[in-house]
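TASK: fixed-backbone design
INPUT:
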């Protein structure tokens, strides 16, 4: 996971209050994947799993929120592709383990010029179908160099755990590709999130219906802003295990807090070809809550 992904995960932990989010991401990538897990359950921050340079993405985000005005369900779909590879996203094959991120240093920069932003290009019309629901279509707006989706948004429970998902792009500047896979399950956590202690490992447990080892991952993000510390811990677990350990070293890094943001993203993934490019396709379901560290 790169710095940008870490920042987005932490922002999600701060902004999501209740409900769950489904997101589908397709990232075209090369075959140069790297992994750097030090073997003791602690990811040292350089491992990327199936993360690689990409030529684009398709994102389906279904959000369930609760408020005093009632429940709201919607699915928002977007897509963007580029003629040159860009930094890739996680695909559900990240190294297992935990790492600490000091968000105060995330935007420090390297002193180098990142250059101009790339211009988006078309991969042709993209059809996204979930089980027997009516499909959504993304069409290329050549005048504005962007994709337009119809319908937008989809106001219903359009995607749920275990659904069959298919993505088909007709191809254009980016060649045609297709992918078929299952949507992940939204996790239900069974351990007490208010019982974390700095001096002890914490055993996180959950139940989400995942029954195939390695087919789904859960990426947990803890964020503590008490005292302006802005520390975050990210852990990746095999979803089918139903349990994962957050080491005391990471809880000590976070420090004590009564309102530690907790988010978990369950992910499934597959890989397709778009001409000479590889397309990593993943679906994500997000849970959010509040934890306490003593």
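OUTPUT:
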């Amino acid at each position: 996971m790169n710095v940008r992904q870490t920042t987005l995960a932490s922002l999600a932990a701060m902004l999501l209050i209740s409900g769950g989010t489904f997101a589908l991401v397709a990232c075209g990538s090369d075959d140069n994947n790297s992994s750097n897990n030090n073997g003791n359950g602690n990811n040292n921050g350089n491992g990327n799993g199936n993360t690689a340079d990409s030529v684009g993405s398709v994102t389906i985000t279904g959000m369930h929120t609760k408020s005093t005005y009632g429940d709201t369900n919607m699915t928002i779909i977007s897509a963007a592709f580029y003629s040159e590879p860009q930094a890739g996203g996680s695909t559900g094959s990240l190294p297992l383990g935990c790492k600490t991120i000091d968000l105060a240093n995330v935007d420090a920069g390297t002193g180098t010029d990142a250059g101009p932003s790339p211009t988006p290009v078309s991969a042709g019309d993209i059809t996204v179908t979930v089980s027997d629901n009516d499909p959504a279509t993304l069409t290329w707006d050549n005048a504005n160099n962007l994709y337009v989706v119809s319908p937008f948004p989809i106001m219903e429970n359009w995607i749920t755990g275990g659904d069959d998902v298919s993505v088909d792009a007709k191809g254009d500047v980016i060649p045609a590709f297709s992918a078929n896979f299952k949507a992940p399950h939204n996790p239900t956590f069974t351990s007490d999130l208010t019982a974390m202690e700095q001096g002890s490992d914490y055993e996180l447990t959950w139940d989400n219906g995942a029954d195939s080892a390695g087919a789904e991952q859960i990426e947990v993000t803890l964020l503590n802003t008490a005292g302006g510390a802005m520390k975050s811990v990210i852990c990746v677990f095999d979803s089918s295990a139903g349990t994962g350990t957050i080491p005391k070293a990471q809880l000590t890094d976070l420090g004590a807090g009564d309102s530690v943001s907790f988010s978990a993203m369950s992910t499934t993934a597959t890989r397709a070809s778009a001409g000479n490019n590889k397309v990593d396709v993943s679906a994500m379901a997000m849970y959010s809550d509040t934890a306490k560290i003593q």
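COMMENT: Residues 3-15 form the longest helix (13 residues).
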